[in-house]
Design brief:
The chain is of the alpha/beta class. The chain has helices spanning about 20-35, 70-80, 90-95, 100-105, 150-160, 170-185, 205-210, 230-240, 260-265, 295-300, and strands at about 40-45, 60, 85-90, 110-115, 120, 125-130, 165-170, 190-195, 215, 250-255, 285, 290. Strand 11 and strand 12 form a beta hairpin. The longest helix is centred in the first third of the chain and has 15 residues, at about 20-35. It is globular and about 65 Å long. The chain binds iron/sulfur cluster.
């Protein structure tokens, strides 16, 4: 079937980059879910990964460094009918954008956040990113990495994401299915995607991941918390599983549970929010503004 979610824009990722697999998985997932192109908004920050909004045939925003997620949240709040997907690299999302990552978990908007995780700032010549393991001496660095890494799965679990998963750019079937599950999930979903950078990271390569990644759920892990149950026990078990990083690395969904979305909580404060779509509200009638500014100002004073 013709993939109607790909654009004709020339792709300038390096040959063999893991980003290609993510592009394929994302566009196939959108096609499978039959979401009309015009109902999807994709936001990216700055980095190799964040060029993907140019390559997917949907509404797209190529934003500022670390600001992909917050732009996506703004779109979702303004028009909850849209399917919003934000993407970041690990440098973009877990470095300068890390405060937004935490805040988004606390809000629990109904949207998806994908992190293209390769351990480096690829666009700026391979500096160590927040996920590069301690003491790793990849070819783009003069010396070994002297910083300890952040664990994106752990951070997402602690921040309140209600769907947290890891997948792999060279396993398109697994990644496509994980993206579909994340989009279907009602709440804030995060997918940390292992995405080898073939140009700068010669340690966390395809061979590295092919040997180590195993399917968490096929090994007996059930990520789902039953509706109404307290998720805290499962969250603490998922944190333990997220610490596994060595000869074996788990991939799959670590947790999935339901919690009131931001829109549901907001609707208790703003009359009509969630039932009336803000962007479809008329702002004028016969050329005259609908809002009574004088009334608004009087109530303010
Ligand atoms: Fe991909 Fe690395 Fe090249 Fe960027 S520098 S396009 S992440 S291979």
């Amino acid at each position: 079937m013709h993939n109607t979610y790909k654009t004709n824009v020339e792709i300038d990722w390096c040959p063999g980059c893991g980003d290609f697999g993510i592009l394929n998985a994302l566009t196939l997932a959108l096609q499978d879910l039959r979401i009309p192109n015009e109902n999807v908004v994709l936001t990216g920050g700055i980095g190799c990964s964040s060029k993907i909004p140019h390559y997917v045939n949907v509404y797209a925003l190529h934003t500022l460094h670390g600001r992909s997620l917050v732009q996506g949240e703004a779109v979702k709040m303004a028009n909850p009918e849209l399917e919003v997907i934000s993407v970041s690299g690990d440098g973009d999302g877990l470095g300068i954008g890390s405060a937004h990552l935490v805040a988004a978990g606390r809000r629990n908007l109904d949207m998806t956040y994908m992190i293209f995780d390769n351990g480096v700032y690829g666009l700026t010549k391979g500096q160590a990113s927040p996920t590069l393991p301690y003491k790793e001496n990849i070819k783009s660095l003069e010396t070994e990495n002297i910083k300890f890494p952040v664990n994106p799965i752990f951070l997402a679990l602690a921040s309140g994401y209600t769907f947290v998963a890891r997948s792999y750019s060279y396993n398109i079937k697994h990644l496509k299915e994980t993206i579909e599950r994340a989009i279907r999930h009602k709440g804030m979903a995060l997918i940390d995607i292992m995405q080898p950078c073939v140009t700068y990271n010669n340690i966390n390569t395809k061979e590295f991941y092919d040997k180590r990644l195993y399917d968490l759920e096929a090994s007996g892990w059930n990520p789902v918390v039953n509706k109404g149950d307290d998720p805290s026990v499962k969250i603490s078990q998922a944190v333990q599983r997220s610490m596994e990083w060595g000869d074996k690395i788990p991939m799959g969904v670590f947790i999935q549970y339901e919690r009131e979305t931001y829109a549901e909580r907001l609707s208790t404060l703003i009359h009509g929010y969630g039932t009336r779509n803000m962007v479809k509200e008329p702002i004028d009638q016969n050329g005259k503004p609908v809002a009574n500014i004088q009334e608004v100002m009087e109530s303010f004073f």
